[in-house]
């Protein structure tokens, strides 16, 4: 019997099936670098006070600190300025940046500028040399250059138009690193990992996965949020290689059963571990509609009669029939959603239902209201 092309294709797919099923990591697995932070390897915020010049009359008009700062800057340049100067082409801004770990002198940083006074727009402005300081008060970078604003503001006596936020600007690579944060990673013999979401189960899984990858007990959990790592002798002086291999370790992070509710927007997010005990639920909507249609009787022209207004108010009350559903003990998130959708609830109603189930003690999850 001849082997058809379809048969050959079927045998080929059957041979690839194990690879497709078992060669791909599970959806729940996450890289270790995405669930933990390494002690000492972190960003450092920088801030500074600066002046933006070159504005087209959209700068500060009633900010005394802007005039004072401009006067001090001119005096440092050898230019005497009067005390009562007012320049609308200048605006005071707060300059912020983030110093990444292992940043070196001469590196470039992106900076964000936010208006401090009553400036209307920063479009077309240029930031004057501004030192950026860390939390310890030391200068780690200096910023200067023309800024870009993703919006505009224009208007006249009768109308105005604004797009986005014209009082916040950004300079890509506008700051230069002047001082480094000293930290020699290759000298370390121990490293600590901090879980971004502390959890005992996740910490235990990380320890087991790391020890399995390196084939020796190099990791130990101190508590639910801290893991101590002992760098093997083979990686002394080569900590970067050790961290590269460590970051690729796959773990299955656990999470608490939690429901987050934002009543302002009607947003509800439920975790997969949410469980509900046996409970009977009845829900019905009550709507009240009031309509007022007054009747007005006008007198005849040239007569001395009075206008008579007769109120005519109609009240319509509708109550939807309540549908009762029973939720068995231990149902999952999918069962809960399908059951509530069967009742026909809206997000606003769902928030009230979840709060009521929690009050009844049948919701086995943390209910967080934002």
Furnish the topology, listing elements before pairings.
Elements: H1 5-22, E1 30-31, E2 36-38, E3 44-53, H2 64-76, E4 91-99, E5 108-115, E6 126-133, E7 139-146, E8 152-155, E9 160-163, E10 168-177, E11 190-195, H3 200-214, E12 219-221, E13 226-230, H4 239-247, E14 250-251, E15 258-262, E16 267-270, E17 275-276, E18 279-283, E19 286-292, E20 295-297, E21 308-310, E22 313-319, E23 323-327, H5 333-343, H6 347-359, E24 363-364, E25 366-369
Describe this structure in words.
- The longest helix is centred in the first third of the chain and has 18 residues, at 5-22.
- The protein contains six helices and 25 strands.
- It is flat and about 110 Å long.
- It has a six-stranded antiparallel beta barrel. It has a four-stranded antiparallel sheet with strand order 2-11-13-12, with helices on one face.
- It has three domains: 44-149 and 165-177, no CATH class; 184-251; 258-288 and 321-369, no CATH class.
- The chain is of the alpha+beta class and 370 residues long.
Summarize the structure.
This protein is α+β, with helices and mostly antiparallel strands and 370 residues long. 21% of the residues lie in helices and 35% in strands. The strands form nine sheets. A six-stranded antiparallel barrel has the order 3-4-5-10-7-6. A four-stranded antiparallel sheet has the order 2-11-13-12, covered by helices on one side. A three-stranded mixed sheet has the order 16-15-25, covered by helices on one side.
């Amino acid at each position: 019997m001849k082997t058809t092309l379809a048969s050959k294709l079927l045998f080929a797919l059957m041979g690839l099936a194990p690879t497709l099923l078992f060669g791909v990591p599970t959806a729940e697995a996450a890289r270790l670098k995405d669930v933990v932070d390494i002690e000492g390897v972190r960003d450092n915020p920088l801030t500074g006070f600066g002046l933006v010049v070159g504005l087209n009359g959209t700068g500060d008009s009633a900010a005394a600190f802007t005039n004072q700062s401009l006067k001090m800057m001119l005096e440092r340049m050898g230019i005497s300025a009067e005390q009562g100067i007012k320049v609308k082409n200048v605006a005071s801004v707060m300059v912020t940046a983030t110093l990444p770990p292992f940043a070196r002198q001469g590196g470039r940083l992106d900076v964000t500028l936010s208006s401090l006074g009553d400036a209307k727009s920063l479009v077309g402005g240029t930031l004057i040399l501004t030192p950026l300081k860390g939390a310890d008060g030391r200068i780690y970078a200096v910023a200067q250059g023309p800024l870009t604003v993703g919006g505009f503001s224009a208007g006249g006596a009768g109308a105005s138009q604004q797009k986005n936020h014209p009082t916040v600007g950004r300079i890509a690579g506008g700051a230069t690193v002047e001082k480094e944060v000293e930290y020699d990673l290759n000298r370390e013999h121990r490293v600590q990992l901090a879980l971004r979401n502390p959890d005992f189960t996740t910490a235990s899984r990380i320890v087991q996965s790391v020890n399995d990858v390196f084939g020796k007990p190099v990791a130990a959990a101190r508590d639910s949020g801290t893991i101590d790592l002992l760098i093997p002798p083979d990686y002394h002086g080569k900590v970067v290689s050790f961290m590269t291999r460590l970051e690729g370790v796959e773990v299955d992070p656990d999470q608490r059963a939690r429901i987050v509710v934002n009543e302002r927007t009607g947003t509800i997010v439920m975790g997969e571990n949410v469980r509900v005990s046996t409970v009977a639920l009845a829900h019905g909507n009550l709507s009240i509609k009031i309509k007022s249609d007054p009747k007005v009787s006008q007198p005849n022209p040239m007569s001395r009669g009075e206008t008579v207004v007769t109120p005519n108010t109609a009240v319509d009350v509708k109550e939807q029939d309540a549908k009762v559903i029973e939720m068995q003990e231990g149902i999952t998130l999918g069962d809960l959603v399908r059951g509530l959708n069967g009742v026909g609830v809206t997000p606003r109603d769902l928030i009230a239902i979840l709060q009521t189930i929690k009050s009844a003690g049948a919701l086995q999850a943390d209910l967080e209201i934002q």
